[in-house]
Structure formats: C-alpha cells, structure tokens
Amino acid sequence: MLMKIISSLLIIICCSLLGVHMSHRYTQRINNIRELRNVLSQLETEIVHYSTILAHAIRKSSKSVKGDWKPVFDNIVEALESRMEYSLSEVWQESLRSLKHNPNIHKAEYEIMQRFGLQLGNSDKISQEKYFQLTQEQLKIEENSAREERLKYSRMYYNLGILLGLGIAIILF
Amino acid sequence: MNIDIIFKIAAVGILIAVLNQVLLRAGREEMAMLTTLAGVVVVLLMVVNLINNLFNSIKSIFRLY
Q1: What is the pLDDT along chain B (65 residues), one digit of tens a residue?
Q2: Of the ranges A11-15, A59-63, A96-100, which is most confident?
Q3: Count of domains for chain A
Q4: Which pLDDT does position B1 carry in this prediction?
Q5: What is the C-alpha separation between A33 and A110, in angstroms, rounded?
Q6: What is the largest CA-CA distance in chain A?
Q7: How far is CA A67 from each of CA A34, A110, A130, B3, B39, rounded to the nearest angstrom?
Q8: Which residues of B touch A152 (CB under 8 A)?
Q9: Is residue A115 part of a domain?
Q10: Domain boundaries, chain B
Q11: How far away is chain B from the Cα of A154, in angstroms, using its nearest Cα?
Q12: Could you list the residue range(s) of the whole structural domain that residue A94 is in?
C-alpha cells in the first residue's frame, strides 16, 4: 500500500514538472525575443552612429545577451574574427541553423533573423537603418503574439501536467 | 464485488470534468472533446469485464444458450 502511494506521488510530481517545463517555454520565448531586440538596437547604434567594423559591432552588442541566442552570436563573432573564407550571410545562416529545433524559439522570429542576416552589412547606412527598424517592428509583433500565447496557454499546460499525473495515478491505482 | 471500482470511476469522472474546463478555458474545444472521449474509453475499459459478467449471468438465469 505504502509502495503504491509513493509511486503514485512520484508519477504526479513528474507529470507536474513536465507541465511546468512546458509552460515555462512561453516565458522563455518572450525573454529570447526581448534579448534579441536589445542586441539589435545596440547593433544599430554601433553601425549607424559609430560606424564600427561589423565583427566588433556584433561582439560589442552581443556581450550582455543571455538565453538561447548567446551561442549564435558567439559563433558568428568567432567565425568573423578568425577570418575564414566566409561571407557574413553564410556565417549567419550557418550559426542560426543550430536554433532551428530549439523549442524556445519559434519559426517566425527564426525566419525574421534569417532574412535580417541576408541584409546585414551589404548596403549604405540609411538602408541599413531601415532594415533595423523593419526587423525591430517585426520582432515587436512577434513579442506581442508571444505574450498573448503565454496568457492563453501557459496556465493551461501547467494545469494539464498536474491533471495528467493525477489521471495516470488514478487509473493505475 | 469490489466497491473500489466505483470510486475509481468517480475520480476519473471528476478529473475529466476539470480537464475539460481547463481546455475549454484555453480555447481548445477539439482537445476538450478528445479528452472527454478518452475518459469514456478508459472507464469503458474498466467496466468491460463487469458487463461481460452481467451478460453471462443474464444468459445463465434465463437459459438463453
């Protein structure tokens, strides 16, 4: 009997943790988008106002970035500074690929960044500034939709995890 | 006859009702429908043996075989 109760509790706890993990993804996605917007606005300042070299600009602006985008920017900086025979857009696409199946990053912002990488550093200041503003605008829309989704689904996944655990425990009891 | 199964079925019923509400609140009507269906199937699996017993008893009482 004691064994049964302990194993049921274990099942419930595991399923609840699963639910918490699933609901945490939505918060994580918002944080990632916010970090990304910070980096982009810093990068814009570096490029448009200070005219820093691209590798230095990316390194400077991605210094404080946290979350899932950090390895991507680190990778880009490393590849640019080691001066291998790559163009920026190649490096960018290559580095982004590691995030393709990341659950904390949706396809929408992934594609926005992919398109952004194709434009970065290959036109004059004014059109670069326009690209930055466009990307910021798109990321803002994504951030808002991520917020809405969190409001809608975060609570649901949390409850679903607990209830699923209870269900399995009751059926097996 | 074991009385436990009645409590078990009641617990599953309550659980499915709550699950249904949670999913409806989140705007996933089709998932709510699916969980209700899953609950019905689970309870049916629980009682299918008892129903079989019932039919066998009826058959033997009325000599239908």
Answers
A1: 688 889 999 999 999 999 999 899 888 899 999 999 999 999 999 899 999 999 999 999 998 76
A2: A11-15
A3: 1
A4: 64
A5: 10
A6: 74
A7: 10, 15, 27, 53, 40
A8: 26-27
A9: yes
A10: 4-62
A11: 9
A12: 35-154
Q: B62 burial class (0-12, 13-18, 19+ CB within 10 angstroms)? A: exposed
* Long-range CB pairs of A138-147, under 8 A, 24+ apart, other chains included: A138/A112, A139/A33, A139/A36, A139/A37, A139/A40, A139/A109, A139/A112, A140/A37, A142/A33, A142/A106, A142/A108, A142/A109, A142/A112, A143/A30, A143/A33, A143/A34, A143/A37, A145/A108, A146/A26, A146/A29, A146/A30, A146/A33, A146/A106, A147/A30
**Burial of B6 by CB count in 10 Å (0-12 exposed, 13-18 middle, 19+ buried)?**
exposed
> By a Cβ cutoff of 8 Å, what residues of chain A touch chain B?
152-153, 155-156, 159-160, 163, 166-167, 170-171, 173
Q: Is residue A20, in this structure, part of any structural domain at all?
A: no
Are the Cβ atoms of A167 and B19 closer than 8 angstroms?
yes
Contacts of B28 in chain A (CB under 8 A): 156
Chain A residues touching residue B31 (CB < 8 angstroms)? none
Spatial CA neighbour of A159 closest among A7, A6, A22: A22
What is the model's pTM? 0.77
Q: Considering the domain boundaries, does residue A92 fall inside one?
A: yes
